[in-house]
Design brief:
The complex is a heterodimer of chains A (about 240) and B (about 210).
Chain A (H helix, E strand, L loop, with lengths): L1 E5 L9 H6 L11 H17 L3 E7 L1 H9 L9 H5 L5 E8 L2 H12 L3 H32 L7 E6 L11 H8 L7 E2 L5 E2 L3 E10 L19 H15 L1
Antiparallel strand pairs in A: 1-2, 2-3, 3-7, 4-7, 5-6
Helix pairs in contact in A: 2-6, 5-6
Chain B lengths: L1 H12 L2 H13 L4 H21 L5 H25 L6 E6 L7 H12 L3 E4 L6 H11 L3 E5 L7 H12 L7 E5 L5 H7 L3 E2 L3 H12 L3
Parallel strand pairs in B: 1-2, 1-3, 3-4, 4-5
Helix pairs in contact in B: 1-2, 1-3, 1-4, 2-4, 3-4, 4-5, 5-9, 6-7
Classes of the chains: A alpha+beta (about 240), B alpha/beta (about 210).
The structure holds cobalamin.
Chain lengths: ~240, ~210
């Protein structure tokens, strides 16, 4: 059974620094009045137009194995291949920040308001990532509070198109999750509409199991190696709580 | 000539209103259209491009300057048509069929227009036929293809193949851009170049039309 998850707008409202980061602008540039005003305007528009919503469905290791194999186009060895078979719980997910914000980005471009358009685009992208973060943490807290997870375990999201999971994997994921119910559709080329949407799986497992190598063949093309940051952040958060 | 310097300076600051005012003044003073364009608007954008490349300014500054440039350009356009002034080159740009990502393509189009090229933006989800037909009818110098997903990359190859079929391959250059692409991929499919961003695209297209 899939469950719709309401996501509060203010939990996915990106900070001005996050909006700038998406455009490779250093945070100290907020001292420039014009840049700061543009970032604030983008945040205000995001707050007005974002319609964040998510969908979650639990799945089993067996069922996920079939979904994960997708069209058989994954890399020979992948990160999830190692983690999902030893995971505690698996939830398929999809989130979106909605169509109105995507339409506004296009409208701004059409009005030659390029700087505002690029700011809003970055805000919406950051907002989509925060929506993933929001449902991940919410489920993790739920699992922790009812004792299904202990303090050495945690939840992390993984998406098709990353870390060896071929983007065509979205077809089987959509077939099972049916994100159309929250207004997300998938095109033949695996493009989700609205554009600012993310799909994937939430994996609940031992924190140590998320300590993956970044030496897979596809890691060479990865620009940020965020897998390492995610693992270290989890360790840090647990240390301080 | 001071007026042209002022246009360039105000454009650099991204002041749309002042650039429009000053461009109108230059037109009223009957300054040569080509000179207003080259020594005022394009000169200003060139400074902006250099500062952006050197990380002295950032994307919003470039985009505000571009908006100011467009305001000036809108005033010059009717004169350019009337006087038959050619642009330095024509670029047909779009996001390939199956892909709706357009922010990157838009930014590249803005940079190319800022450098003085005529840009024909076909939008997103563009078929190979549309790219090639437009390039032929418009006698474009360059076709710019954008794709953000690995699943839409193969369409780029189709565009190159169709360009060969229709006899424009080699004459009309094809450049590609987007996150999952690389120079190797450009080489593999027979495209002329891969460009990481708008700055690179401007350098590359200038090279193709023989401008340093
Ligand atoms: C922000 C982001 C998102 C945002 C928004 C996406 C968007 N674009 O609107 C969110 C979080 C919603 C998202 C979602 C997804 N994303 Co995403 N996303 C990114 C990210 C980090 C940046 C994209 C971006 O907006 N860049 C800013 C713009 C300005 O840059 P740009 O479009 O690349 O354009 C520049 C250059 O490429 C170049 N250029 C572009 N076009 C052209 C054309 C020409 C002619 C030239 C010369 C140059 C040129 O110049 C531009 C200006 O500098 C990229 C990774 C990356 N490093 O790029 C992944 C990336 C594009 N996403 C990826 C994936 C997989 C996804 C998802 C499928 C994940 C999932 N399963 O949910 C979804 C798909 C969403 C959908 N609608 O279908 C993959 C795609 C890889 C693949 N295998 O196809 C990437 C590459 C990440 C990765 N794995 O490395 N994503």
């Amino acid at each position: 059974m899939a469950t719709t998850v309401d996501i509060e707008r203010n939990t996915v409202l990106p900070s001005a620094e996050q909006v700038l980061a998406g455009q490779a602008i250093p945070a100290d540039r907020l001292s420039d009045r014009r840049t700061a005003d543009l970032a604030e305007a983008a945040r205000a528009t995001f707050e007005r137009l974002a319609q964040p919503i998510g969908l979650l469905a639990d799945t089993t290791i067996e069922e996920f194995g079939i979904i994960y194999s997708g069209d058989g186009m994954n890399n020979a060895e992948t990160v999830l291949d190692e983690i999902y078979p030893i995971s505690r719980y698996l939830f398929l997910f999809a989130i979106t920040v909605g169509e109105p914000i995507c339409k506004e980005i296009s409208a701004l471009f059409e009005r030659n308001d390029f700087a505002a358009a690029a700011m809003l685009d970055a805000a919406a992208s950051a907002g989509a990532e925060l929506a993933v973060e929001a449902i991940t943490r919410r489920y993790e807290n739920e699992l922790l509070s009812d004792g299904r997870l202990n303090s050495s375990q945690a939840v992390l999201p993984f998406s098709p198109g990353y870390c060896g999971w071929h983007i065509s994997g979205q077809k089987k994921l959509f077939g099972r999750l049916k994100p159309e119910t929250i207004g997300i559709t998938l095109s033949g080329s695996c493009l989700m509409q609205p554009l600012k949407s993310v799909s994937g799986v939430l994996v609940a497992a031992a924190i140590s199991d998320f300590d993956v190598d970044d030496t897979y063949s596809f890691c060479a093309e990865c620009s940020n190696h965020s897998c390492q940051d995610r693992y270290h952040q989890l360790k840090e958060i647990r240390k301080t709580t | 000539m001071e007026l042209l310097q002022q246009i360039s300076d105000q454009l650099e600051k991204g002041d749309t209103v002042k650039v429009a005012e000053l461009t109108s003044q230059a037109i009223e003073q009957k300054l040569d259209t080509r000179i207003i364009l080259d020594n005022g608007l394009i000169a200003g954008m060139a400074v902006v491009g250099k500062k952006f490349k050197a990380h002295d300014i950032f994307l919003p500054d470039v985009l505000l300057a571009a908006r100011a440039m467009y305001a000036g350009l809108d005033l010059l356009k009717p004169l350019m048509i009337e006087e038959g002034i050619p642009t330095i080159g024509k670029v047909v740009i779009g996001t390939v069929q199956g892909d709706l990502h357009d922010i990157g393509k838009n930014l590249v189009g803005i940079m190319l227009k800022g450098a003085g090229f005529e840009v024909i933006d076909l939008g997103n989800d563009v078929t190979p036929e549309k790219f090639i037909d437009t390039a032929i009818t418009e006698q474009a110098d360059v076709i710019g293809l954008s794709a953000l997903l690995t699943t839409t990359m193969p369409t780029m190859k189709k565009v190159v193949e169709l360009a060969k079929e229709r006899g424009i391959h080699g004459k009309t250059r094809i450049i590609i851009g987007g996150a999952p692409l690389s120079s190797e991929y450009a080489g593999d499919i027979g495209a002329d170049a891969y460009c990481f961003d708008g700055i690179k695209a401007v350098e590359c297209v200038k090279g193709f039309v023989g401008i340093n």
